[in-house]
Amino acid sequence: MFFKKKKAEPEKVTAVETPAATAESEGGQNLDLLYLKNVKVDGKAANKEEAIRMVGQMLVDTGYVDPSYVDGMVEREKTFSTYMGSGLALPHGVEAAKKAVKASGIAVVVFQDGVDWGGETAEIVVGIAGVGDEHLNILSNIAEVMMDDERVKDLYSKDAQKIYALLTAN
């Protein structure tokens, strides 16, 4: 199980293993870890920096991070690749960018044509912002999904509803 749905809000979900899954943003709003609107299946990017900036902007637009966090995501990629293998990249900010995180959250983009990621091809890019050490729980849960062949098929389905269902399955 990756994320669990809240009872009365079908498009909002909260992390199962993350103690502060609903965090208060700067504006006083409660934000959940994943929203359906943060799953895009029609991504197009010329390179990995453009792909990182795309998922980073989704995190900004949802209110998880300040814009400076996106620069921290690009900076991390310059020093350490966030490509995990099997067509999956998990960009997240450098430690110094943590102060720009307002609430933990993720954004998922499927790139139909893939994106060159340092000689590898990333098809799914999951931008991650974590308050404190919550990014470690998020990374662990994604690794768990990647270990199950059936769940991986849904992740690579290029269907936003299937991907969302996978990441919100009970």
Indicate the topology.
Layout: E1 3-5, E2 12-15, E3 23-24, E4 30-31, E5 34-35, E6 39-43, H1 48-62, H2 68-79, E7 83-85, E8 88-89, E9 105-117, E10 120-129, H3 134-146, H4 149-155, H5 160-167
Parallel strand pairs: 6-9, 8-10
Antiparallel strand pairs: 1-2, 2-5, 3-4, 7-8, 9-10
Biggest sheet character = 5 strands, mixed
Whole-number mean pLDDT:
82
Shape: globular
**Which strand order do you get reading across the main beta sheet?**
6-9-10-8-7
- The CATH class assignment is Alpha Beta
Distance between the termini: 6 Å
CATH structural fold name: Mannitol-specific EII, Chain A
How would you classify the helix and strand content by structural class? alpha+beta
Write a concise keyword list for the protein shown above.
single chain; 170 residues; alpha+beta; Mannitol-specific EII, Chain A; five-stranded mixed β-sheet; 27% strand; globular; disordered N terminus
Describe the structure.
The chain has 170 residues and is of the alpha+beta class. It has one domain: 3-Layer(aba) Sandwich (Mannitol-specific EII, Chain A), CATH 3.40.930.10. The protein has helices spanning 48-62, 68-79, 134-146, 149-155, 160-167; strands spanning 3-5, 12-15, 23-24, 30-31, 34-35, 39-43, 83-85, 88-89, 105-117, 120-129. The protein has a five-stranded mixed sheet with strand order 6-9-10-8-7. Strands 1-2-5 form a three-stranded antiparallel sheet, with no helix packed on it. Strand 9 (105-117) and strand 10 form a beta hairpin. Helix 1 packs antiparallel against helix 2. The radius of gyration is 15 Å and the shape is globular.
